[in-house]
Q: What sequence folds into this?
């Protein structure tokens, strides 16, 4: 394999994804910063309510991963019809999930909030947020699948433009609605929800425009109700473990939030802020994992298995460097975050400790994301990630967190530190599977 050309391709595909992730993290940071001036209660309510959006995102990510795995390999093979069929299958399941989630947000928002907190002020604010955000979920789901298909064929710059437009619109509208600019009333957290819903509708409209101008990769609903049996079987075989993996991962993080939520408002506020900072620190590793997985998938789809293995080796090294850089980013911006945070002294103390922990935690995240969500999935291997994360989080991290918080009643900092060992506990199994090279395979079929 020509390593020079490989690095060039990594840069071409990954840089737009990196820019997109950076914009996403910047917008999330801007949201938290603006809510910071509304009050600690608004930050905490938003942090808990958006857990449902995070879970839904995991479903989209898993659904998109299954579609992207197949689409990337069929694109490498030159079979664009199968790419369109894969998109139709993914859209079918996504529409069903979005309809269910929208109904829950509209009909039972307070019940959803009570899962995370018993505090009535947080429940009231969060329920209002969910009612409004639910409106845009279907548009978000459709856009997410189309963007996954575009990424799988290397159109990462188009995806970046699509998502950047929606994100920048979101942050601009947040400012307008939160602070009541241009004579509008100050809506606070409701303004964040309204801006989010509008931006998702906008992204869907932009996807339709891109599709209309595209000659090959269109947002088509033609295959939503039609399905190739072989492709459908492959999609389910790869997507279901990926979806379950991401749901398991997302639910575990939501459970962490439930633990923090029952430890008090100060912990929730500190965790909300540190999650935003961690998002900035993981921009590079998530971008590399996404772009690297696409490239490995295309290489394997061409039948070049040995080159796919070498690509995996290079990407693993890059993930370690990305994790170190991410930790340095967190360390660099921590003083600024601590300075501007409008929280209590107790919450500030928690925040300082959490930021220190995350300077190391990001390296664990980077390596696992690259291998499990990038390299392994590129070869169609999604079951390993599901098994690994299920055991790691639900047999180890969640029980440890619950025992530490509610049985042994350890200090908050110890609870947080113990939960944050989850990424490193699974390293031995992840590296063992990587070295087996069972993931390096061509999964395409001859589709009529």
A:
């Amino acid at each position: 394999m020509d390593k020079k050309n490989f690095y060039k391709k990594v840069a071409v595909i990954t840089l737009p994804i990196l820019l997109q992730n950076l914009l996403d993290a910047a917008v999330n940071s801007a949201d938290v910063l603006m809510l910071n001036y509304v009050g600690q209660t608004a930050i905490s309510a938003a942090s808990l309510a958006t857990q449902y959006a995070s879970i839904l995102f995991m479903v989209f990510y898993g659904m998109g991963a299954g579609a992207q795995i197949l689409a990337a390999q069929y694109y490498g093979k030159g079979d664009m019809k199968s790419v369109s069929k894969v998109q139709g299958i993914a859209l079918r399941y996504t529409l069903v999930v979005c309809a269910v989630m929208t109904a829950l947000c509209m009909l039972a928002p307070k019940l959803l909030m009570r899962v995370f907190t018993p505090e009535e002020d947080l429940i009231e604010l969060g329920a209002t947020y969910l009612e409004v955000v639910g409106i845009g979920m279907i548009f978000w789901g459709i856009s997410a699948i189309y963007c996954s298909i575009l990424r799988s064929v290397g159109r990462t710059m188009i995806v970046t433009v699509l998502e950047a437009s929606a994100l920048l619109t979101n942050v601009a509208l947040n400012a307008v609605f939160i602070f009541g600019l241009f004579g509008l009333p100050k809506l606070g957290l409701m303004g964040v929800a309204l801006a989010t819903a509008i931006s998702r509708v906008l992204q869907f409209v932009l996807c339709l425009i891109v599709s209309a101008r595209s000659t090959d990769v269109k947002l088509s609903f033609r295959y939503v109700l039609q399905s190739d049996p072989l492709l459908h079987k492959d999609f389910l075989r790869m997507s279901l473990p990926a979806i379950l993996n991401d749901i398991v991962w997302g639910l575990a993080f939501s459970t962490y939030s439930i633990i923090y939520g029952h430890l008090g408002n100060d912990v929730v506020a500190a965790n909300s802020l540190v999650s935003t900072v961690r998002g900035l620190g993981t921009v590079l590793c998530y971008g590399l994992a996404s772009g690297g997985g696409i490239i490995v998938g295309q290489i394997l789809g061409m039948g070049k298995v040995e080159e796919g293995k070498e690509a995996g080796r290079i990407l693993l090294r890059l993930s370690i460097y990305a994790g170190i850089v991410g930790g340095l980013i967190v360390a660099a911006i921590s003083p600024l975050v601590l300075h501007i945070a409008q929280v209590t002294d107790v919450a500030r103390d928690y925040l300082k400790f959490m930021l220190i922990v995350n300077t190391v935690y990001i390296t664990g995240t980077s390596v696992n994301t690259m291998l499990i969500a990038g390299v392994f999935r590129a070869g169609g291997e999604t079951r390993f990630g599901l098994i690994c994360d299920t055991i790691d989080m639900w047999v180890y991290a969640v029980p440890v967190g619950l025992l530490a918080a509610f049985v042994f009643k350890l200090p908050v900092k110890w609870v947080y530190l113990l939960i944050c060992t989850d990424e490193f506990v699974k390293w031995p199994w992840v590296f063992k599977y990587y070295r087996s090279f069972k993931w390096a395979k061509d999964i395409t079929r001859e589709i009529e």
